[in-house]
């Protein structure tokens, strides 16, 4: 839990803040990363205040004095670095599990059939499908997000892009089956070697494992959004 950084941003104190205290708070927030290496004298000079004001501001933040405040800031910085490193490593892992090369054929097909495109996803993937439809519209490519099997009957000359993180969702498989019966082209953004990938003519795939928490599957969409962005970027740059 952060002890200082949130207070500097929110500044919800029990009493009004003086002008000189505000100057110290502004300096602490702006130079947060370097505060552990600075002296009270330097901060007083840089903020055009006094050492007494800095000690008073430290107490305003809930500390006995500047030394205690500086130690708490050091802990906040270590916490920020630890969390940032964890998120960076997780993102790097996800990126390594996406086969970006497999996006090329999908992008070509989407461009060739850009006026006859349906998108389908369930749960969190439905939100990703809506996001992709909006991004495609920015490029002048209309895409319809379908939510029911019956909708396919009116779009038999369209291509269907199925977004499924697992590639094994039963409703997605049923929709793919019905779309094939209607002679529709099946595209997919999905998991490698899944049933959806095997049943599609073109797929952009990943190999990100299902996230488990106490026996419950959490449907991550970070990799799906990254994959959608890759497709949109290639379309925007004319990589087809």
What distinguishing features does this structure have?
alpha/beta, 52% helix, Arc Repressor Mutant, subunit A, 5-stranded parallel β-sheet, 2 domains, 7 strands, single chain, two-stranded antiparallel sheet, Rossmann fold, 240 residues
Can you tell me about this structure?
With 240 residues, the protein is of the alpha/beta class. The chain folds into 2 domains: 5-95, Arc Repressor Mutant, subunit A (Orthogonal Bundle), CATH 1.10.10.10; 99-237, Rossmann fold. The chain is 52% helix and 13% strand. The chain is built from 10 helices and 7 strands. A 5-stranded parallel β-sheet has the order 2-1-3-4-5. Strands 6-7 form a two-stranded antiparallel ribbon. Strand 3, helix 8 (170-181) and strand 4 (185-191) form a beta-alpha-beta unit. Helix 6 (103-112) crosses helix 10 (222-237). One of its GO terms (molecular function) is DNA-binding transcription factor activity. Residues 106-240 form the SIS domain. It comes from Alkalibacterium kapii. Residues 4-80 form the HTH rpiR-type domain. This is RpiR family transcriptional regulator.
Q: What is this structure's SSE topology?
A:
Blueprint: H1 5-10, H2 19-30, H3 40-46, H4 51-60, H5 66-96, H6 103-112, E1 117-121, H7 124-138, E2 144-145, E3 159-164, H8 170-181, E4 185-191, H9 195-199, E5 202-206, E6 211-213, E7 216-218, H10 222-237
Helix pairs in contact: 2-4, 6-10, 7-10
GO molecular function: carbohydrate derivative binding; DNA binding; DNA-binding transcription factor activity
InterPro entries: Homeodomain-like_sf, HTH_RpiR, RpiR-like, SIS_dom, SIS_dom_sf, WH-like_DNA-bd_sf
Domain HTH rpiR-type: 4-80
């Amino acid at each position: 839990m952060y002890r200082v950084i949130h207070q500097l941003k929110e500044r919800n104190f029990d009493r009004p803040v003086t002008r000189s205290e505000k100057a110290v708070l502004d300096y602490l927030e702006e130079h947060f990363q370097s505060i552990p290496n600075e002296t009270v004298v330097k901060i007083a000079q840089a903020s055009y205040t006094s050492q007494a004001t800095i000690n008073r501001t430290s107490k305003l933040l809930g500390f006995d004095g500047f030394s205690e405040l500086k130690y708490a800031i050091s802990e906040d910085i270590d916490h920020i670095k630890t969390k940032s490193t964890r998120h960076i490593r997780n993102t790097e892992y996800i990126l390594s599990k996406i086969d970006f090369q497999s996006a090329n054929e999908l992008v070509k097909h989407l461009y060739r059939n850009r006026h006859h495109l349906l998108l389908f996803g369930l749960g969190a993937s439905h939100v990703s499908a809506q996001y992709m439809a909006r991004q495609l519209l920015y490029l002048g490519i209309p895409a319809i997000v379908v939510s029911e099997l019956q909708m396919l009957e009116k779009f038999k000359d369209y291509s269907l892009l199925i977004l499924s993180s697992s590639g094994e969702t039963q409703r997605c498989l049923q929709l793919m089956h019905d779309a094939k019966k209607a002679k529709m082209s099946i595209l997919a953004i999905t998991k490698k070697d899944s049933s959806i990938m095997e049943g599609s003519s073109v797929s952009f795939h990943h190999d990100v494992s299902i996230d488990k928490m106490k026996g419950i599957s959490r449907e991550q969409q970070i990799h799906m959004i990254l994959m959608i962005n890759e497709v949109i970027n290639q379309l925007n740059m004319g990589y087809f």
